[in-house]
Amino acid sequence: MQAILTSGAEFIVWLQRFQTPLGNEIFELITSLGGASYLYMIPLVVWCVDYRTGLRLLAVFSITVFINTTLKTWISQPRPFQLDPRVISLGEDGYGLPSGHAQLVVVYWGVIARWVGRPWFWMLSVVLMVAIGFSRIYLGVHFPSDVIAGWALGAATLWAFARYGDRALAALRQPDLGTQIKLSLAIATALFVADLLLVGDAERLNAGAAGFIAGAGIGAAIAVHKLDFDGRGPGWQRALRYLVGMALMLPVLGAMRELGVPSGLAGKAVIAFDLAAVGLWLTLGAPWLFQRARLTTSGASVTIGDATG
């Protein structure tokens, strides 16, 4: 493994000989498309493109985050700039292998490209996957092997989703609403416990993924049973839905950062509950509000009592 890292560092040092201020700005912009930007891009799909595709994206994306953060903690591989002082980098927190940007970009755009079903969109998606992965090497935050591993894991996850995802989600839709809610809680609880057993207090993002799955799963189960929301409509409705939904969701995320998060199990619980609220808003709260505000084109508005059964 050391030989792979050494050769990878040499490649990065060679590559960075061609760095320019403009090139740095371009690749920093490209790499930003694979990070926190998902907080903005996922709601766009759920609320403004296609609700059920958005639900599939939420499910596979959350599992992918859990897999990536767990593997990073297990492997505990430093990043290039930490091993070779010649590597130029602004730095990045956490371990390096596998690259989360490379893994998540394959899953996110792969799910959407599968839904679009057009060869030209697949080509654009692949270009974006390659560009984001390459940007991580160019900026010195990942070895080439980190990025290749991320791409491979993302592709494997996407393949599993394409082969088994629809059947798994169809099976989850079969039980009644109460059972679906219990299943969402059971899956989230299993992930939370697995996180405690596998990585301890080393990685809080997994607790957030577990909480998000609980909130989003419960919200989706209720919404599918009680609401008539598909995410479609004229452009002005989609734009207003997005602006209203994000305006009410972002403060929830910001509050956690402002108030601070305690350490240990208490901190993981805080993150889990915070992201559970975000997931519930994303899949149920916002769609219910959109119907009440007449920002949808199908179905009648429902009362909150109807929505919760």
Please report which band the strand proportion falls in: under 5%, 5-15%, 15-25%, 25-35%, 35-45% or over 45%.
Answer: under 5%
**Which residues sit in consecutive blocks of at least 5 with pLDDT less than 50?**
299-309
Number of helices: 13
Count of beta strands: 0
Structural class: mainly alpha
Cα-to-Cα separation, first versus last residue = 55 Å
Main sheet summary: none
Assign a percent range to the helix content.
over 70%
Categorize the overall geometry: globular
How much is the average pLDDT? 84
> From N to C, what is the helix and strand string?
HHHHHHHHHHHHH
Rg estimate, integer Å: 20 Å
Task: Provide an overview of this structure.
With 309 residues, this protein is mainly α. 76% of the residues lie in helices and 0% in strands. The chain is built from 13 helices and no strands. It has helices at residues 2-15, 21-32, 38-48, 51-75, 80-83, 100-116, 119-138, 144-173, 177-198, 205-226, 235-259, 264-292, 304-307. Helix 9 runs antiparallel to helix 10 (205-226) and helix 11 runs antiparallel to helix 12. It is globular. The termini are far apart. The model is unreliable at 299-309 (pLDDT under 50).
